[in-house]
Structures are given as structure tokens and as C-alpha cells.
Amino acid sequence: MKSYNSLCTIRRQFESAVQSVVDDIACYSSDPIADFSRNRKLPARILIPLIIQMGSASLPTELANFFDDPKFSVTASAFCQQRSKLDPEAFLHILHLMSFSRSPSLLKGYRVLAMDGSDVNIPFDPDDEETLCQTGSARPFSQLHLNALYDCLNDLFLDVSIDSSRKTGECAALKRLIRDHRYPARSIICADRGFENYELFAFCMENGQKFVIRCKDIRSNGILSTFELPDSEFDQKIKRILTRKQTNEVKEHPELYKYFAWNINFEYMPKGGAEEYPIEFRVVRIEVKKGEYECLITNLPPEKFSLDDLKELYHLRWNEEVGFRKLKYTIGMLDFHSKKRKFIRQEIYGALTLHNLAALMIHAVPIEQKKDKKYEYKANFSIGTTNIKKFLKRKIGARELEERIKKGLIPIRPDRCYKRNMRAQRVHAFQHRPA
Q: What is the phi/psi pair of residue 302, to 5°?
């Protein structure tokens, strides 16, 4: 299939996803009987793509950019009144429909998924305690935390959970996403040290989910610190019996038993139920630099996934960080167009959907590599997204979009590495937005 045909197919898939919400608009309305029942300038079939395609500009500028006809104008007030009728779950439904590639990239037959979180600063509201944050004597601010499941090889956000600023539900969010299972069955989930948890390991195994989770080193106070393990690279299986008993045998064999008090929640040892739960997993310790190690806990079999395979798997997890950067700085999820939390959720789900649309279309365009160049090249995501918005609004055709994506290329420099620059990000005030 020609790539421009693929681009048209993806656009039709998006339009079909929007139409599926429009057809059941009563299910996504504040008032199922009255909302979207009258003929307005902004019906749901126009309102939804408008919110998804909004960027970082001011609201009047976004409305002017979306509607080209000078005779057709929509005020900011009318827009806000219409969007107040729409449930954010409508955008989450569209996100789920736009999270699958027809010809996905795989690693040994598996989709490589990453679970990670990212903080999102939102307009300050001192009355909203759930989002209120304060660091030391600095001014308070408002923040949400996204827990997202990301397809590392295909650059797609598959599912997301919006948490409060306290980040109390990371493991619970992953368990919910696994339970809902809105992602391909044959997959491996990679996660960082925040997910080092016996109950989560057991939950993955009980639900047949493959995982690779980074944990604290043997020299620290994490799970592995209680085992007798060599201070070098290793790859071995570990067995543990989780128990609520406090017998002499349990106390005399801490290397075999792990005691859980009755007030600690563990799904597979409920109160009044089972008092023991045997668990077995594979532990891998990898030397990343001279004298520096990373430890991984996994249930992948060693005969299929070697030490080098696990190194590559965990390295791929970093692609989600790149995805968050694109989401914030290219799609524009740093700047919202309202203080209302309902509207902010709409725009978060909309930004994730636009990211997936851009990723699907950019991956559909083959990039020719020239032999006389030092580096391989890939499409510039920022330029591609700008032109994809034009394509969605039918300002340009599929052939022209393909040509524009092919012209906007950047080199792939695989060995480039910079120290991560952690800086506090501020919300831009509504009156200080680009035109």
C-alpha cells in the first residue's frame, strides 16, 4: 500500500473514532437528554476534533486557527459552554481507539511497553487540595501526575491514569491497566524502581503478564538487600515465601520467608484467608559502568531472553521519557485553556490522542536513507505534527503531507548523551500566550 493511502486510512480511523462518540453522545454528556440536542455552531463532531488539535496559543487564537472561514466565528464563551457538556471520558475512548498500529514493531514477537509517570503543572487553584503542591518556602502551585502505558517501539500511548500530585497510586494504576487490558496480549511491561513491589510482581504473574522492573541494588535497602547475592553481574532465580505467620521457622529463615503484617494489604493473602504465598522470579544484575550496577526483576525465561536482551529491553523504557517530552513541548500539554479540572482532563486526553495520530502517520511514511550520509535520518516530529493538523482539517492532501514529512528530517545520533537537566516548569498565564 502506498504511504499516502495509509495516511488517509489513519485519518478515516480517527474520524470513525470521533463519530463513534458522536453516535453515543448521550453516554458522554452531563445531561443525556438536553445536551447536544439543539443545532449549534459547535456540535460534538466539530467540538471534539477542535479540542484534540489545540496547541499552546491563547484560546481566541486557537479558535481562529481552527475555523478558516472569516464569516464563521465562535466566541470563547460559546466554546466553553459547549465543552462543559462533554465528559472527558469521550476523549479517553478515542485515545483507546487510536492506540493500535496495523503493522507494529516487535521485539522477539512481543510489544515492548513501558509504565512511567510524569508531573503536569496546571493553573493554580488554592481550593483544590488534591492538586496543591508546595516545596519548602516556595510559592504553592497545582499539579497532576500522569501514569501512562507507552508502546516503546511504536511511539504510542496505550492507556493513561490521572493521579493527584501526591503520586499515591502508581502501582494501583498499573494493576488497573493490566486488569482492564486495553493493550496487546503478547507484551512485556517495563517499569522503574517505583514499581518494586511484591504484590505487583504476584499480580503480573497471576494475570499472565510478562514484566521487567528495575529494583534497588543489593547494597541498598530494597527487596534484594535481604538475599545473599554476589557483588558482581549475575542472572539467577530467587524463591520466596510470603507469609503472615510469625513462627520460629519464619524468624530463623529470613532468606526464605518474608513476613507481612495483617495491616499490610496483599491481594493473594487476604485477612482470614491464606497465610502463605510462594513466589519465584528471576533477578538480573547488569554492570552499566565500571563499578555501577542496575538490578532487574523479571519473569521472562532465560532461554529466550538473555542478559543482553534484558539490557535492550530496559534501555527501550527511556522512549517513554521521549514521548512525554513530545507530549509537553511539541503537542503543547504544558499550556491549558481553562482552570476547570474537567476541561484540563479533556485537553490531557486530547493531547495524548493527537500524539498518537502524529506517531501513526509519521511511522506510515518511509524515510529513504542515503548511503553517503554519516547518520541515518528520521522524520522531525514537530514539523510532522504541524502538517498533520493541516491534513486533518483538509488544508493539504495526503501526497503533500507525505512530501512535507520527508523533507523535514533530523539525524539519529545513537551515542549522544547529556546529563538530565531537572528544572521546575511554570504554567504560562492565560494573558501571556503566543499569538
A: -65, -25
SS3 letters across the chain: CCHHHHHHHHHHHHHHHHHHHHHCHHHHECCCCCCCCCCCCCCHHHHHHHHHCCCCCCHHHHHHHHCCCCCCCCCHHHHHHHHCCECCHHHHHHHHHCCCCCCCCCECCEEEEEEEEEEEEECCCCCCCCCEECCCCCCCEEEEEEEEEEECCCCEEEEEEEECCCCCCHHHHHHHHHHHCCCCCCEEEEECHHHCCHHHHHHHHHCCCEEEEEECCCCCCCHHHHCCCCCCCEEEEEEEEEECCCCHHHHHCCCCEEECCCCCCCCCCCCCCCCEEEEEEEEEEEEEECCEEEEEEECCCCCCCCHHHHHHHHHHCHHHHHHHHHHHHHCCCCCCCCCCHHHHHHHHHHHHHHHHHHHHHHHHCCCCCCCCCCCCEEECHHHHHHHHHHHHCCCCCHHHHHHHHHHCEEECCCCCCCCCCCCCCCCCCCCCCCC
Instruction: State the DSSP code for 29.
Output: B
Element holding 90 (H helix, E strand): helix 89-97
- Do β-strands 292-298 and 210-215 pair in parallel, antiparallel, or remain unpaired? antiparallel
> How far apart are the C-alpha atoms of 435 and 57, rounded to whole Å?
6
Task: State the 10-residue block means of pLDDT for the chain, 435 residues long.
Answer: 81 96 94 89 94 92 86 88 95 94 90 93 88 82 92 95 77 91 92 90 95 90 85 90 88 86 84 81 88 91 92 90 93 91 96 96 91 88 95 94 92 75 68 67
- pLDDT score recorded for residue 435: 62
How far is the C-alpha of 49 from the C-alpha of 361, rounded, in Å?
17
* C-alpha to C-alpha distance for 59 and 66, rounded to whole angstroms: 11
Task: Give the pLDDT of residue 358.
Answer: 96
Could you give phi then psi for residue 191, rounded to 5 degrees? -145, 165
pLDDT of residue 413: 84
User: Grid cell 482532563 — which residue?
Assistant: 345
> So what's the pLDDT on residue 420?
65
The pair phi, psi for residue 86, each rounded to 5°, is -100, 130
Beta 234-243 vs 257-259: how paired, if at all? parallel
